[in-house]
Amino acid sequence: MEANKEITRENYKAYVFEKMPKSSHWKNMLWAFVVGGTICTIGQAFIYLYSLWFNLQDASVLASATLVFIAAMLTGFGVYDVIGRFAGAGSTIPITGFSNAVVSPALEFRAEGYVYGVGAKMFLVAGPVIVNGVTISVIVALLTLLFGG
Question: CA 115, CA 106: separation in Å to the nearest integer?
Answer without folding.
Answer: 10
